Fold ABC transporter permease.
Amino acid sequence: MAMNVLQSPSRPGLGKVSGFFWRNPGLGLFLLLLGPLMWFGIVYFGSLLTLLWQGFYTFDDFTMSVTPELTLANIRALFNPANYDIILRTLTMAVAVTIASAILAFPMAWYMARYTSGKMKAFFYIAVMLPMWASYIVKAYAWTLLLAKDGVAQWFLQHLGLEPLLTAFLTLPAVGEIRCQLPGWALSGVSLYLVAVHDPARSGGA
């Protein structure tokens, strides 16, 4: 018995468009990213430019009001010697967070990529991502209960004679930032290692 094969109607217009982007992959990538980049540019950079422009407005210290009278007083205030210490502490904290996150995350990423699979790898993923799922308010309240004066951590370390260590530890503002940065560092490190090193080496028999 002869069987008739139904063929879908050809779409010459769609084929030409597909062929055009096939021959010009750079243009296709540009058009694909154009929308998100425009949105990012309008929302993010637009907000920054608006904030920069408002930095030239006049601020009345007495009435705490802002008037659209252009002045350079706010720009001159940036070079106040008191701001140098703020900038230095901010840069120091940023460098400390970056280094500490790398030290903690990359060994974890290496172990996850090299020695775990299946349920164990899923466990590590959940353990890394779980702190980010909770609400910031809940996390802040929980850390307050744990690390506040006369809190759980102080009670525990007081019995061990390590209370000064907790006091010194809590003076570092980078602690909270490391907790926020660690999941991104660890998971991106896993992906980077798998794609660039581990998977090709395993395919080659290493």
Observations:
- The two ends are 54 Å apart (CA to CA).
- The longest strand covers residues 58-60.
- The chain has nine helices and two strands.
- The mean pLDDT is 73.
